[in-house]
Amino acid sequence: MIDSCVHTHSSFCDGKNTLSEMAEKAYSLGLKAVGFSGHSYVSIDDFGILPHKLDEYLAESSRLKSLYEGKMDILCGIELDKFSADTIDTSKFDYIIGSVHAITDNFGMYRVIDGSLNRFVSAAEEGFGGSFLSLCSGYYDQLCDFVLKTKPDIVGHFDLITKFNRGSKYFDEESSNYKNIALEAIDAILENDSVIEVNTGCIARGYRDKPYPADFILKRILEKKGRVIITTDAHNVDMLVSNTDMAADILRSVGFKAVCELSASGFYEREI
Ligand SMILES: [Zn+2]
Ligand SMILES: [Zn+2]
Fold this sequence. Notes:
This protein is of the alpha/beta class. The chain has eight helices and eleven strands.
């Protein structure tokens, strides 16, 4: 069981439950900390916490922090998207998850890579000359640039580009071509001190059988002495701790002895 779940969404963005309901459930599960990480607003796609709702998000988080004081830490973070990096004052938040959900294609067009299968396929076909490997290169290059520029506390769903690729349908995840692209990116990102999340949200939503990132990436993180944190990317109260034991099992099988947890005083290590 995890101590903290710090990748969560609420009705302020695309989640189902209120912040208060998420906190209540986290407390009933015995979590030591819960972190809110609403999507940052992306104007080109009109998703995330609407700019005029941001103060309310911060105020409600503050109210809940006081309400649970001494019982459970509440952290107010944000899942910062690459396309809103320049418009969000990150100093207002306790922590930042840096995530890429969309990239710029070869023609400068905005391409969502995790929204739907159709959008993923058309990103490769129309934006990257029909090459899914080129789409992968574009994704990882832009993820690296974003992480090295913004230095988030946590890097979100590192290999999200595999979301619609179950069974290696569009590109071979076992090929050295793909693995080299992903490994080059994780090496670059680990030069920064960000913690890499092991995100189980894709399992509950039926896209994958295992968390992000894939085992070969976890192995490289371990070799490079990188740090990981288990998160569920919960969009409702029922997802708050789902599949976290599986994530810990996978990490142990790769060789990890500990994971990071987040509290009001920062990251600490927990043995697994
Ligand atoms: Zn995300
Ligand atoms: Zn998320």
